[in-house]
Amino acid sequence: MADDADAHGVGEAAGSRTTAALRWLLAALRQLAERLAAPLRAGDGPNKFRLSSVETHTTTIDGDTGWEYRPPATLRCPDCTAGILQADSRGAIDCPECRLDLPAERFGDLELLGLTCPVCRASMQHGQRHPEDFDIPEWATCPNCQYHWEFKHSY
Ligand SMILES: [Zn+2]
Ligand SMILES: [Zn+2]
After folding, report:
1. What's the domain of life for this entry (predicted)?
2. Å from CA of 87 to ligand 1 middle
3. Model pTM greater than 0.85?
């Protein structure tokens, strides 16, 4: 029985040590939580972060670079002179009138009638930076919403 009592006593002492350590840990955690919450409470005023994220959003939707992001183009059909809308720069040039079907690579051979703004559908201004090297548009700007596209050749 004496052995049992000793074992009990040791167990109790270990138990109270654990409780003390837990209490200390909880107090420390509570202090840490209060310290972390303080700056958040101080920032309850005007939300500067939200304002700046709106500005970032406006600048990122404002333009694209690269031929694969070229705005939808309207080309003149070399056979029947109808306007052919090529929405995707990698898509076939497919005449809706005479069913002439040209691969996307023939773009430079056809007369470009115009580019359409992918954001607001307005007719875009476009031009070339190296007319002697390219017979395709190298930039386009929407006069309505300021969307800008730029072709950057990679070779
Ligand atoms: Zn045609
Ligand atoms: Zn536009």
Report:
1. Archaea
2. 16
3. no
